[in-house]
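Exercise: predict the fold of this chain.
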Amino acid sequence: MIVHIFEEVINGREYKIEVSAVDAATWRAQLACVPGGASALMPFYGGTPDDAARRLTNWLALAHRSSVKAV
């Protein structure tokens, strides 16, 4: 099985993303399992490894962005 690894820094946090083929036209991106780390995040799917990883990184950016209070 071919696995693509993407390392991203999103909002100051480091992530390692694994992307693997589901079938000929679908790729699954998920956070790489690290000892002691969380692994409950749902996978994201795309037509290419880059597309699947981009969908996951976009979601992480939204989920972990810093909130700024209006003055």
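Check your answer against the key: The first helix runs from residue 49 to 63.
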